[in-house]
Amino acid sequence: MQQPEAMQDNKVNVKKVESSFALSAKRVLASREMGVFIALIILLIAMRLLSPYFLRTNNLFNVLRGMSTIAIMAIGQTMIIVTAGIDLSVGSILAASSMVAARLMFMEIVPPWAAVLAGLGFGTLLGLINGLVITKLGVNPFITTLGMLSIARGLAYLLATGLQGTVASNIPMRNEFVTFLGKGYVGPVPVPVIVMVILVVIFSLFLRYTVLGRQIYAVGSNEQAARLSGVPVSLVKTFVYTITGTLCALSGILTAGLLATSATSAGVGVELDVIAAVVIGGASLAGGEGTIIGAVIGAAIMAVLRNAFVLLKLPIYLQTITIGLVIIVAVAADNLRHRNR
């Protein structure tokens, strides 16, 4: 038989475990991500009631495929916004990077795999330039990336038309590997969705468990305090803009693979969806807050909304207005949350 003292200790330990579990559950339920996830569930239920086609397998995979490129870019945008920055050039970098790969493939200068690497490298370079202009020249992130938005879009036109200005809006990108990346399947799952999931897991772990990941949050929470604590602020900021350029380039390759062409119009306006996904997912434009998982949930909400407009045959202007309202409401909610702290 157990002694009374041992039985009492067991009861205390059980209560501690129960208390710890209850506290963890309370934190999860109170998190911004959980609130956004519940909103997504409500939206899914509403769409199921409004359209019998919504929950069909093909439609759901189309929604996932559509959100994958937004979510991949939102990974980088999350890290940038966590540092209290912003990147308006993501759509233009997407277009310019895929155009580099398409031009090299079209001219058959290098093997297709090297063309893809060149496209990824070009996106990385543009992201690096954003980071260096912000950190070394002290230009505001909004102005820097707004300028890059125009520069990268111009480069996409240049690559498509050439110096002679010959009219061209796209370049074919018919390569088996790129096509597989964009529109292929592994079993029933689209390849872009698999790529998205892998990147989400990698960067979620990176932000949570690495020194650089924690430094990203430190810079956004209090840049001056982070600098005094020995955090290499300029290096951290440069890193997040550079990696975002790489992720945009990857999204460009996936998009070109899906469409079998690289278009100068690719990614136009996509920065709105990316920023909206991140802010809806709980990231604060003031910096210091945000998670990759939250951004993915936000991207899912944006994708479901766009799919809803198609299934319900609603006019395009209503879709555009709704996206704008969603962004304003998300930012306003974030501001109110900070005021009430």
Mind explaining what this structure looks like?
By secondary structure, this protein is an all-alpha fold. It is 77% helix and 3% strand. The protein contains 14 helices and 4 strands. It has helices at 4-30, 32-50, 57-82, 90-107, 112-136, 141-161, 176-183, 191-209, 211-221, 223-228, 233-259, 270-280, 292-311, 316-339, and strands at 170-172, 185-186, 189-190, 261-263. The strands form 2 sheets. A two-stranded antiparallel ribbon has the order 1-4. It has a two-stranded antiparallel ribbon with strand order 2-3. A hairpin with a 2-residue loop joins strand 2 and strand 3. Helix 3 (57-82) packs antiparallel against helix 11 and helix 12 crosses helix 13 (292-311). The chain is globular.
Distance separating the two termini: 53 Å
Secondary structure class reads mainly alpha
Tell the overall outline: globular
Strand content: under 5%
**Backbone CA Rg:** 22 Å
Number of helices: 14
Please mark out the parts with pLDDT under 50 across 5 or more consecutive residues, or reply none. Answer: 20-30
Q: Give the spatial strand order of the biggest sheet.
A: 1-4
> Could you report the average pLDDT, rounded to the nearest whole number?
87
